Amino acid sequence: MRSLQDLIKLAEEHGMGLHEIIMTVDSEATGVPTNEIYNLMLSRLKDMRRSTEEASRNPNPCKLVPNTGVLIREYSKGAGMCGGFLLKASAIALEVASYNASMGRIVAAPTAGSCGILPGMLFSWEEFYGKGMSDLDRKLTEALIVAGAVGEIIANRATLAGAEGGCQAECGAAAAMGSAALVYLQGGKCEAVSNAVALTLKSVLGLVCDPVGGLVESPCIKRNGILLAVGVLAADMALAGVVSLIPADEVIDAMGQIGKSMPASLRETSRGGLAVTPTAKRLSKELNLQ
Amino acid sequence: MPVWDIIGPVMIGPSSSHTAGAVRIGRIVRLCWGEEVVNVNLYMRGSFATTGEGHGTDKALLAGLQGYAPDDPEVRDGIKLAQESGMNFTFYEEDIEDAHPNSVRIEIWDSSGRRMDAIAASLGGGAVSLQELDGFEVDVSCLLPVIIIMNKDVHGVVGAVTMYLSSHGINIATMKLHRDSRGGLATMVLELDGNESKVKPEEIEAVHDAIVRVISIPGVTL
Fold it and tell me: What is d(CA A200, CA A150) in angstroms, rounded to the nearest whole number?
């Protein structure tokens, strides 16, 4: 699977849903039957839901960053400007990313460092749009398959590793995958899925990976809680009919090329960016880190 | 990578390479050793040495050496559990110029004098490579079942082994051969398409006199 455009064309030619054609293509490539692929993805959804629940009552503190999800939950009861959907999604993402940093059990989506974004988007959607839906898990599993395919295409055309492409390849990719899932859940057309991916990725191009002290905490956790907003807005824009001038596949290629031109100091080595600020150096020294 | 590897693995955080990958390395090395690991030295290389502690790489390696999976919450207590089970372990840092940037050398021995030396690297996203075993190049991801055969370099060993596998209906996915010198020690590394349960290491050992040792590792999925 190398092209979102080809995938959409294939779905239209065969009169199949996006999730169906994705499972067919992956099945042909791996020899795993489509019903097994569906069940695997359903189990991923369940693991993701469990990690979200465990994360909301995580007693283990991170090394650097205090748990901020609870602040957003409290604040969202009032008049937050972003609205309930986004604040809920952000709270979940912050909690799951913190849970990951404190050695919690999570689903890498696509990576451990960006594991809060998809649960934030999917389970906020569940709360605001999916309540009482009889086939909720089927719908969410299909959305997760769509998100996975976007990740697969990014992996094949560019990269999903911060060490190769910076944070645009981790949290940026996760937000693009989530925006595709949201458009799908809202009943958007394939073209809107593709536009949501392009619009999200265009807005995160160049984002570097510069973790303080080499830990998956700062700025990673808060980037989970903030970057998903780009994906949510891109999904709404795409559903409204906004079209990305540059198609998704080409935006992904640009992302890969930008990652290649990034200096190593900004690709997960903690030798540049936020990681070498005076505060980061002081904190790393206090914790006896690199 | 298919969709279930993109959305996955399910793992104990915080890092797919430094935590989940490290657990898988420990598990694979334990499978190579074949029994409980009692004495072990771990030589951390590259970022396993510099950022390993912050990512729980030490806990993850020890948990893997005890047989835990990357998504087992016990990984968090990998060090404590190793101490409680009586494992003697020591961590060192090793600066090797051409070593993989995320890798570890693991030395295991028992009271009878048996020893094993393995080098493994974490490649990202939880994927790993068992690079060397007892000084021999192996270089397998261990996603598929693997058979490693060490033998004296004489003619006919490869034929005897492939004949055995063929007669048991097992398809070879990949095959690599190495030797230290002509007529010296050789290794054969075979990745199999499933059916590894039909493979009996002691039967393979018997197919040719020149075979010294056979190691069978079941596929360890992400």
Answer: 12
pLDDT classification of A198: cutoffs 50, 70, 90: very high
Q: Do A105 and B11 touch (CB under 8 A)?
A: yes
**Do A106 and B55 make contact, defined as CB atoms within 8 angstroms?**
no
The span from the CA of A130 to the CA of A116, in Å, is 20
* pLDDT at position B61: 98
Q: Is the pLDDT of residue A83 over 90?
A: yes
The predicted structure's pLDDT at residue B222: 60
Indicate if the pLDDT at residue B198 is higher than 80. no
To the nearest whole Å, the CA of B32 is away from the closest chain A CA by: 27
Number of domains forming the structure of chain A: 1
Cα distance between residue A180 and residue A195, in whole Å: 9
Q: B105-121 pLDDT, tens per residue?
A: 999 999 999 999 999 99
- Give the model's confidence band at B124: pLDDT under 50 very low, under 70 low, under 90 confident, else very high: confident
How confident is the model at residue B196, as a pLDDT? 67
Please say which residue of B134, B165, B186 terminates a domain. B134
- Domain boundary residue among B99, B134, B169? B134
Count of residues in chain B: 222
Do B119 and B179 fall within a single domain?
no
Q: Look at residue B31 and tell me if it is in a domain.
A: yes
Name the residue facing B4 among A37, A106, A213 (closest C-beta): A37
Quick check: is B222 in a domain? Answer: no
- Matching residue, tokens 């657990």: B23
> Is B141 within a domain?
no
Q: A106–B9: do the CB atoms touch at under 8 Å?
A: no
Integer Cα distance of B178 and B185 in angstroms: 9
Task: Tell me whether A99 touches chain B (CB under 8 Å).
Answer: yes
Q: Apex CA B195: angle with CA B1 and CA A22, to 5°?
A: 25
